[in-house]
Amino acid sequence: LISKDLEGKKILISAGPTREAIDPVRYISNRSSGKMGYEIARAAEYRGAEVTLVSGPVNLDVPVGVDCISVTSVDEMAEAVFSRMETADAVIKVAAVADYRPKNRAEHKIKKKSHDMTIELDKNIDILKELGKRKTHQVLVGFAAETQSLAENARKKIEAKNLDMIVGNLVGDPRSGFGTDTNIVTFFHPDGRKEPFESMGKDQVAHELLDRVVGLMKVRG
Length: 221
Ligand code: PMT
Hints:
Elements: E1 10-15, E2 20-23, E3 26-28, H1 35-46, E4 50-55, E5 67-70, H2 74-85, E6 90-93, E7 100-102, E8 121-123, H3 127-134, E9 139-146, H4 150-160, E10 165-170, E11 182-183, E12 185-188, E13 194-196, E14 200-201, H5 202-220
Bound molecules: ligand PMT.
Ligand PMT is lined by residues 32-36, 93-97, 99, 124, 126-128, 142-145, 157, 169, 171, 177-179.
EC number: 4.1.1.36, 6.3.2.5
Binding site for CTP: 99, 109, 143, 157, 161
Protein name: Coenzyme A biosynthesis bifunctional protein CoaBC
């Protein structure tokens, strides 16, 4: 039985993909289903936390008791997260945020032409990096979805984004990553420690992660 060890705590979670419009009918996005973030929201609520979930477009039911804010683009997600970070005790960024968006969003549907075409992209804001700069008391946890060099890339991100922990997520394995019910993760800590796990349910990953978050909150007092 899991205790209500997050009673009185406010947890802010982002989940799912973002969509960046090309024209009124097309967009750039990624394969995130939202499952990992929603399982963390469900688990945190179960453990007594007041949970706010900022969610990109997904086909999942919002867990009972969780406050969900639906967003579409990176800019909307950034605004929703930044305006709620100050009061949060922990922020967990599971969302797969688009790193680029079309430079111009066409007002009308782009018509097929007889020649090839190119879409120019602008770089998006890195929401997590900005959170890392702004954080005061919050426990800040990121995810890193990688197809290769998991440890190296995760360690770079933990430092660059000023995180308290990062979840290295292997993608490209049928038991792990986008859209699956199971996941293969490694927790990386700023002091160099790492905790690799076998494939387990995303609900189990959620509870393992929250165990660490509870520990980090205790240290912070
Ligand atoms: O949704 P599911 O289908 O269940 O899949 C789960 C998942 C694979 C999406 C999830 O477990 C995961 O790994 N999420 C992070 C995906 C990702 O975008 O990783 P990244 O390495 O590109 O980004 C690193 C971190 O920075 C992430 O916490 C991300 O939210 C954040 N970020 C990235 C870019 C950006 N512009 N802003 C950000 O905040």
